[in-house]
Amino acid sequence: MVLKNKKSLGQHWLKNRAVLDEIADLALTSDVDLCLEIGPGLGTLTSSLLKRFEKVIAIEYDDDLARKLPGSFPGKNLDVVNEDILQAEIDNLAGGQPYAVAGNIPYYITSPIIRKLLETQPTARKIVLLIQKEVAERLAAEPGDYNLLALFTQNLAEVELGPVVKAEEFTPPPKVDSQVVVLTPLAEPQVDPKCLELAKRGFSSPRKKLAANLSGGQRSKADWQEILRQNSINPDARAEDLSLWDWETLSSI
Questions:
Q1: How many domains does the chain have?
Q2: Is residue 236 part of a domain?
Q3: Pairing relation of β-strands 55-60 and 78-82?
Q4: 106 with 208, same domain?
Q5: 136 Cα distance to chain centroid
Q6: What is the CATH number of the domain that holds 243?
Q7: CB neighbours (10 Å) of residue 77?
Q8: Are residues 137 and 116 in the same domain?
Q9: Do residues 13 and 42 touch, judged by C-beta distance below 8 A?
Q10: For residue 11, what pLDDT is reported?
Q11: pLDDT, averaged in runs of 10, over the chain (253 residues)
């Protein structure tokens, strides 16, 4: 039986073995023998992971792919879980063992997957994902180019960019290039995650200046401009310009 990709699930299978091996290498970390793979598909990345980890637990939403995958790796220490990653209880799957995460994930659920992985306790020691290049670059952004996902991610993990993967390296090719992103979760958040509740207001209308987005209730736009000025933040700033520590400062006022 030939399995075709399902466009509704965002399936694009990477065929470049060198890149697959590099993703698996990047997922390696000391004292971790277990890797959770998200969306194994045809098992191309699974093959590389099984050569580097003692055990792989592959979480596959597609019923047909999940059913076929074990037969591709007879005798290997591979468990296949036919489940939606956004519904999976990752901590239970890991069974208390230290674990890494790797995967070529669908573009359309990148944000919820990253949020789930970083909020799961205990957190993975290393998370290596192949995602849309533009999103990967934004995750590693600096002030002036932040979005809410970047702030959330950088608050909880060190972010590094891996290799860029051209669209033609996939079957079928997506419309845009991809890039590997490596997340190393931090022992503690850099700032209290509650600070980012204010950031949500700041990003509510990204084209507006920050003071306008934050105004309302007891504080006017002019009030917020003065607060920004008093805290050495440009009163004409937009949300994308502020660092985690700027949000920490503003949320404490």
A1: 2
A2: yes
A3: parallel
A4: no
A5: 8
A6: 1.10.8.100
A7: 13
A8: yes
A9: yes
A10: 57
A11: 41 82 96 97 95 97 94 96 96 96 92 97 97 96 94 98 93 89 98 96 92 92 97 96 97 93
* Claim to verify: residue 31 and residue 131 sit in the same structural domain: yes
**Together in a domain, 113 and 210:** no
Contacts 24+ apart (CB under 8 A), 27-32: 27/52, 27/53, 27/100, 27/101, 27/102, 27/126, 27/128, 28/52, 28/53, 28/100, 28/126, 29/100, 29/125, 29/126, 31/98, 31/125, 32/98, 32/99, 32/100, 32/125, 32/126
Tell me: do 200 and 179 sit in the same domain. no
Can you tell me the distance from the alpha carbon of 173 to that of 90, in angstroms, rounded to the nearest whole number?
A: 30
Q: Measured on CA atoms in the order 163, 166, 167, 169, is the torsion positive or negative?
A: negative
Give the residue among 211, 226, 16 at the shortest CA–CA distance from 24: 16
Domain with 11 in it? 7-185
Q: What is the CATH number of the domain that holds 76?
A: 3.40.50.150
3-state helix vs strand vs coil in the chain, percent to 5: 40, 20, 40
- Entry pTM: 0.92
